[in-house]
Design brief:
The chain contains nine helices and seven strands; from the N terminus they run E-H-E-H-E-H-E-H-E-H-H-E-H-H-H-E. By secondary structure, it is an alpha/beta fold. It has a seven-stranded parallel β-sheet, with helices on both faces. Helix 1 crosses helix 9, helix 3 packs parallel to helix 4 and helix 4 packs parallel to helix 6. The protein starts with a strand and ends in a 6-residue tail after the last strand.
Length: 245
């Protein structure tokens, strides 16, 4: 898929940035999406181009249908086609169910799940015309096993897995595969805020004995976006060091 065109949401840092750089290697063309961190998004674009790809930076809040449509239109206008969509945008509003406000629930669901729905719906149209496409949703292992204090986040990620399987069934006939990657405990800005004793307890649950890196997730996404994964659809690939088996 030399020269493939990819949209990565939430690509200004962390896992999204690593995915953008990986998909940009060797001539990939990448739409770097962000909501509020324009300088970080521009740095991601610079790293993509440093890796041998081309990049444009596009502000869009995919929780809004019109923004998702505009993001796809920008990719088509800049590069003429759309091969890969990575739904990575996500936020957290963690607290226990008894303390969770409606706005905390809605904000997470709108970005993490509804945003993916919006972009899949928008991207499916040009991909169906091409009779080819790859959609990869970034879920989480907590969407499989649950996690106290994250009812909204877990529900969104579990819903994203269900959306992945349904979209895979609906779009397979047009040559479009839809899969999910479920990261475990990955070294990001979010995990960097955790206390050392919390990190130590998490690592104890990982058979490989260490925290993952954003690049570990990016390589899994790159595989699912490639021709090597042409006969794989509707699947969830855990990238978690064996945390969830």
């Amino acid at each position: 898929m030399t020269g493939r065109v990819s949209i990565i949401t939430g690509a200004s840092r962390g896992i999204g940035r690593a995915i953008a750089v990986e998909l940009g290697k060797g001539g990939g063309q990448v739409v770097v999406n962000y909501v509020g961190r324009v300088d970080d998004a521009r740095e991601t674009a610079r790293l993509v181009e440093q890796a041998g790809g081309r990049a444009i930076v596009e502000q869009a809040d995919v929780s809004l249908a019109e923004d998702a449509d505009r993001l796809v239109e920008s990719a088509l206008a800049a590069f003429g086609r759309l091969d890969v969509v990575v739904n990575n945008a996500g936020i957290t509003r963690d607290t226990l169910i008894l303390r969770m406000k409606d706005e905390d629930w809605d904000a997470v669901m709108n970005t993490n799940l509804k945003g993916a729905f919006h972009l899949i719906r928008s991207a499916a149209r040009p991909m169906m015309k091409q009779r080819r496409g790859r959609i990869i949703n970034i879920a989480s292992v907590v969407g499989i096993v649950g996690n106290a204090g994250q009812a909204n986040y877990v529900s969104a990620k579990a819903g994203l897995i269900g959306l992945t399987k349904t979209a895979a069934r609906e779009l397979a006939g047009r040559g479009i595969t839809v899969n999910a990657v479920a990261p475990g405990f990955i070294e990001t800005d979010m995990t960097a805020e955790l206390q050392s004793d919390v990190v130590a307890k998490m690592v104890e649950q990982i058979p490989l004995g260490h925290v993952g890196k954003p690049e570990d997730v990016a390589k899994a996404v790159d595989f699912l976006a490639s021709d090597k994964a042409a006969y794989i659809t509707g699947q969830v690939l855990n990238v978690d060091g064996g945390m969830v088996m």
